[in-house]
Backbone:
């Protein structure tokens, strides 16, 4: 006898339910698709005064302008790395050259966190900056990389 005959409606219900549950499990286990370039750091152009070639290093131009890149700090969601420009010992620019961008949530969080962290760094003129609410890991990584850049610059 065939399992799906009309005189066995309970079997059809059980099989249909099992198929539905299996399908839902498969759909829910899918991971969002990310492209390789989405996981790569957004490149930043260095000021014409000088550029940094390595982690925690920098160059100066002789006019009091120095560009230094801090260490890449590994956070729970990905690395964070900051490049700063100093003019006569004052931070004139702080750029996050690497930060988590792997998925849409990372992009959303960092689209508001990175500009706030930059503004804090420029205002404080140090790595003593506030954590951005909702971006704790990025804030901690930014702060540590900024401190690393300042240490490398001798500031």
Residues:
């Amino acid at each position: 006898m065939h399992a799906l005959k009309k005189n066995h409606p309970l079997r059809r219900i059980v099989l249909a339910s099992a198929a539905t549950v299996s399908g839902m499990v498969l759909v829910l286990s899918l991971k969002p698709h990310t492209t390789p370039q989405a996981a790569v750091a957004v490149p930043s152009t260095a000021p014409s005064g000088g550029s940094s070639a390595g982690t925690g290093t920098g160059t100066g131009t002789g006019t009091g302008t120095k560009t230094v890149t801090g260490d890449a700090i590994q956070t729970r969601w990905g690395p964070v790395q900051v490049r700063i420009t100093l003019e006569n010992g004052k931070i004139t620019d702080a750029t996050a050259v690497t930060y988590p961008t792997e998925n849409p949530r990372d992009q959303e969080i960092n689209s508001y966190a990175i500009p706030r962290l930059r503004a804090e760094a420029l205002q404080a003129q140090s790595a003593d900056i506030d954590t951005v609410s909702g971006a704790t890991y990025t804030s901690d990584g930014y702060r540590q990389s900024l401190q690393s850049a300042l240490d490398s610059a001798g500031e």
Summary: Helices lie at 9-28, 104-124, 136-153. The chain has two domains: 1-30, 36-153.
